[in-house]
């Protein structure tokens, strides 16, 4: 049995979308890696347990990045004047082809893992590349860092240069082998990762659908991101009524296995109805949507519709790994959408953005992203003393300033009750 201990500080979390719970100077008790409760005073039964006392600092649930490309981290912030398809061709594909070299992969994934460890993100759904050995290196590094992430070996068997393309058979065989080799990690789990429909033939998608049913693994991909991409998919799959159907007909669109689709900027009513019915998660990646000129996803509307929504950095379509930055980008984008596109729904609020970055995305991992009893104890401790004001701020105001102004790096971090630093 793991030890029982408590964190003490100013606790903030969102039990429901838009609802900010505040517990000043309180104890967050952890038992067996899970939240046991929040207490203003330690109850009798917990007297004498170790307490990590963070004084006046802020303590939030660890943040969840529902969509990030580890293989693109090293060149984030480059090629940002291009639209999606050109950016993939000129930037992403040449860079990802380098991961055939294991020494390169070890170096690049080492940098990514160090940065993710330092950040306020405790869990993530991560794209590697199509290279199985390099993907295993990334999983090994994340596992050693204690970060409970999903990682995907990417599948691609069409529409990319020879140096970054598998045959259909190779792609399926390598994926099977990789799934068999991924069982020994403690914290990291594999997830199927067909890159997007333009990269995957129908035959590959059908084969991945069969693998999912055999192994029962989660799945991630891209959906309805950019107008040129969507038009291309309608040409590649003329017998589908909408983009999501190209996943669904392979059995890869939610239902039994957790599924997360990045972007969904342009999802129409039928696609959204199917996502809701099948419990497909939406990874909202606002900065990437601006950088590669994809558009403004109607996230406020999705939340009102009851869709499952979390936030993604989408590095390197997004240049920043910080989920605090993703929160402000999401809010700011939603304000532009409200002013310029759709006056029926309002803008996102800070508690809504925090919810998406914690409990919203955390639900993909189970009971994650909240300080309610029974949730995994993922927490980050933030020191805002370097953001002084001329008047005292409430806790909610301090949270807002940390999100908008800080570099977002925590001074302590816990995942499933384990202290990472
Ligand atoms: N669609 C297919 N691949 C990618 C990628 O690497 N980044 C983004 N943003 N969209 C994609
Ligand atoms: Fe992406």
Automatic annotation (TrEMBL):
The lineage of its organism: Bacteria, Bacillati, Bacillota, Clostridia, Eubacteriales. Keywords: Hydrolase, Metal-binding, Zinc. Residues 59-388 form the Amidohydrolase-related domain. InterPro entries: Amidohydro-rel (IPR006680), Metal-dep_hydrolase_composite (IPR011059), Metal_Hydrolase (IPR032466), Metallo-dep_hydrolases (IPR051607). SUPFAM superfamilies: Composite domain of metallo-dependent hydrolases, Metallo-dependent hydrolases. Its cofactor is Zn(2+). PANTHER family: GUANINE DEAMINASE. Pfam families: Amidohydro_1. This is Amidohydrolase family protein.
């Amino acid at each position: 049995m793991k030890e029982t201990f408590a964190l003490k500080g100013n606790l903030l979390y969102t039990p429901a979308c838009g609802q900010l719970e505040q517990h000043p100077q309180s104890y967050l008790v952890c038992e067996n890696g899970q939240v046991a409760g929040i207490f203003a005073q330690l109850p009798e039964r917990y007297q004498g347990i170790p307490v990590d006392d963070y004084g006046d600092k802020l303590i939030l649930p660890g943040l969840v990045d529902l969509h990030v490309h580890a293989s693109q981290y090293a060149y984030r912030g480059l090629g940002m004047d291009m639209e999606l398809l050109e950016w993939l061709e000129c930037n992403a594909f040449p860079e990802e082809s380098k991961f055939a070299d294991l020494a390169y992969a070890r170096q690049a994934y080492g940098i990514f893992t160090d940065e993710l460890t330092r950040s306020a993100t405790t869990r993530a759904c991560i794209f590697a590349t199509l290279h199985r050995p390099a993907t295993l290196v990334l999983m090994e590094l994340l596992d050693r860092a204690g970060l409970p992430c999903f990682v995907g070996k990417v599948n691609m068997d069409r529409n990319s240069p020879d140096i970054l393309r598998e045959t259909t058979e190779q792609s399926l065989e390598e994926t099977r082998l990789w799934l068999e080799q991924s069982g020994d990690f403690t914290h990291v789990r594999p997830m199927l990762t067909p890159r997007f429909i333009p990269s995957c033939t129908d035959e590959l998608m059908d084969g991945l659908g069969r693998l999912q049913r055999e192994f029962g693994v989660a799945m991630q991909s891209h959906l309805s991101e950019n107008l040129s991409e969507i038009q291309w998919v309608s040409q590649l799959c003329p017998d589908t009524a909408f983009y999501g159907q190209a996943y669904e007909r392979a059995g890869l669109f939610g239902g039994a296995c957790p599924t997360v689709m990045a972007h969904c900027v342009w999802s129409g009513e039928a696609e959204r109805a199917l996502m809701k019915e099948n419990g497909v998660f939406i990874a909202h990646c606002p900065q990437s949507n601006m950088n590669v000129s994809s558009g403004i996803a109607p996230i406020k509307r999705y939340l009102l519709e009851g869709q499952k929504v979390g936030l993604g950095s989408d590095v390197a379509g997004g240049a920043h790994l910080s989920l605090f930055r993703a929160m402000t980008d999401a809010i700011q984008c939603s304000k532009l959408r409200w002013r310029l596109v759709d006056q029926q729904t309002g803008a996102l609020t800070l508690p809504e953005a925090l919810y998406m970055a914690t409990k919203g995305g955390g639900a993909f991992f189970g009971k994650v992203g909240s300080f309610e009893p029974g949730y995994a104890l993922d927490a980050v401790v933030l020191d805002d003393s370097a953001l002084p004001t001329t008047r005292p701020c409430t806790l909610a105001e301090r949270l807002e300033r940390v999100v908008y102004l800080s570099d977002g790096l925590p001074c302590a971090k816990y995942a499933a009750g384990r202290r990472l630093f």
